[in-house]
């Protein structure tokens, strides 16, 4: 087989790049390790920046998003069970859209059937080869048969645990990392959201987040210890802890019910540089991870997709062979600014195991400062709605 671009990984970034390239009549193939059912069973991001919404529109993947996405003009921040609002609309004249990553991925999968590109699900033992030459290729197994695809470029969209980054020699890669000493317990419940906007709560017993998917589906998160296990979390314990951490007025109106999904995720910041090695490129979680506190991971994956899509279009259509060489620098500039913001949100809102009463007071003072300072609010809003790309 031969194609122009092989995309390893059929998560949101791989599928979005695939759809954009297909629309630009650039030949491509996606290799995804799992079944579609498995990919769509993962509950992850919930908040889209305007730049991500615009890119999904460009990919013609916004039909349902337009109808079912919720525009949010602000968030609530809380400390000591008292909350105040950050009004994005009035501060920076931008908004975010609440629409689940699962639905984004479902919409993108729906479009793959219409494309002349190819998608292989359950592709096993995918291995990129020869990306330091002008004859790269990828081998994999499908339906028990070994296959080989010759191509011009290989794109690693295969997430943090994927194979692509691991095939790059260690001495060619620089890793910067921070592992946080806590995780997030996420719960999905068929109950009305506690508030019509997201609530990020700092509390002396740990962080909580109230989010949502739709009018009758809530998504909540609680900070947990790093070695915790979901088995330790009965629904009753979860709701009690959440109530304790939310602002008082929200806690009073919280509707509780059985959980329909419960999982624990670790939190880390991770950047691997550069994001291009010869004819191999890294995109999204394959290259970088941010803690979910600023709702940035998926959005950052989409800005990578945008830079790479632009570069590949120039390469194939405008005979600009140099454009792909700028991808890594462009993408990394935004990656580091977003890594900084996600680290800051995480550090300001969570309780650290060795946190003294001094540290707690500093966090509370920072949040109080945010309440009183429009300049501080503007900086938060500008980052939360997404830096331009
Ligand atoms: P993904 O989604 O991990 O997809 C990678 C795909 O590659 C496949 N794969 C392979 N395929 C072939 N061969 C191999 N060897 C392969 N190895 C892996 C996998 O099966 C998978 O289908 O990476 P991608 O596309 O870069 O997307 C990144 C996002 O998923 C991630 O950044 C976000 O979910 C992060 N995130 C959030 N981001 C936001 O923008 N806003 C949010 O509100 C937000 N909330 C979150 C989050 C992540 C969370 N968790 C669970 C880590 C909340 C949570 C709790
Ligand atoms: C979510 O709804 O899953 C969500 C929202 C905001 C975040 C992280 C996760 O910061």
Task: Explain what this protein looks like in three dimensions.
- By secondary structure, this protein is an alpha+beta fold.
- The protein folds into two domains: 5-71 and 97-176 and 268-345, FAD/NAD(P)-binding domain (3-Layer(bba) Sandwich), CATH 3.50.50; 179-267 and 351-385, 2-Layer Sandwich (D-Amino Acid Oxidase, Chain A, domain 2), CATH 3.30.9.
- The protein is 35% helix and 29% strand.
- The protein contains twelve helices and 20 strands.
- The protein has an eight-stranded mixed beta sheet. Strands 8-2-1-12-19-18 form a six-stranded mixed beta sheet, covered by helices on one side. It has a three-stranded antiparallel beta sheet with strand order 3-7-4.
- β5 (74-79) and β6 form a beta hairpin.
- α1 packs parallel to α6 (101-112) and α9 (297-317) packs antiparallel against α10 (327-349).
- The radius of gyration is 21 Å and the shape is globular.
- The chain binds 8-demethyl-8-dimethylamino-flavin-adenine-dinucleotide (RFL) and P-hydroxybenzoic acid.
- 8-demethyl-8-dimethylamino-flavin-adenine-dinucleotide (RFL) binds next to α1, β13 and α9.
């Amino acid at each position: 087989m031969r194609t122009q671009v092989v995309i390893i990984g059929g998560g949101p970034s791989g599928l979005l790049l695939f759809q954009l390239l297909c629309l630009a009549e650039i030949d491509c193939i996606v290799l995804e390790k799992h079944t579609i059912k498995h990919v769509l069973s993962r509950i992850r991001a919930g908040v889209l920046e305007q730049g991500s919404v615009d890119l999904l529109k460009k990919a013609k993947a916004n039909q349902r998003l337009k109808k079912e996405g919720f525009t949010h003009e602000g968030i609530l921040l809380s400390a000591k069970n008292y909350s105040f609002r950050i009004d994005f609309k009035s501060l920076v004249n931008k908004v975010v859209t609440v629409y689940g990553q699962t639905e984004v991925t479902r919409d993108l999968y729906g479009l793959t059937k219409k494309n002349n590109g190819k998608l292989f699900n359950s592709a096993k033992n995918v291995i990129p080869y020869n990306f330091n030459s002008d004859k790269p290729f990828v081998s994999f197994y499908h339906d028990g048969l070994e296959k080989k695809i010759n191509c011009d470029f290989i794109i690693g969209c295969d997430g943090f645990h994927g194979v692509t980054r691991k095939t790059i020699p260690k001495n060619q890669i620089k890793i910067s990392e921070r592992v946080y000493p806590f995780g997030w317990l996420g719960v999905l419940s068929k109950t009305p959201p506690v508030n019509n906007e997201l609530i990020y709560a700092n509390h002396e017993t740990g962080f909580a987040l109230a989010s949502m998917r739709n009018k009758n589906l809530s998504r909540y998160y609680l900070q947990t210890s790093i070695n915790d296990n979901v088995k330790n979390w009965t629904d009753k314990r979860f709701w009690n802890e959440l109530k304790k951490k939310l602002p008082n007025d929200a806690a009073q109106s919280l509707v509780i019910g059985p959980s329909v999904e419960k999982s624990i995720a670790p939190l880390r910041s991770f950047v691997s540089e550069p994001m291009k090695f010869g004819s191999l490129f890294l995109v999204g979680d394959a290259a970088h991870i941010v803690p979910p506190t600023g709702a940035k991971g998926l959005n950052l994956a989409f800005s990578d997709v945008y830079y790479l899509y632009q570069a590949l279009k120039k390469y194939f259509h405008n005979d600009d062979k140099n454009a792909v060489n700028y991808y890594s620098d462009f993408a990394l500039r935004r990656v580091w600014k977003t890594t900084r913001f996600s680290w800051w949100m995480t550090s300001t809102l969570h309780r650290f195991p060795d946190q003294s009463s001094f540290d707690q007071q500093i966090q509370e003072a920072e949040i109080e400062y945010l309440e009183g300072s429009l300049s501080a609010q503007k900086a938060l809003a500008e980052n939360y709605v997404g830096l331009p790309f």
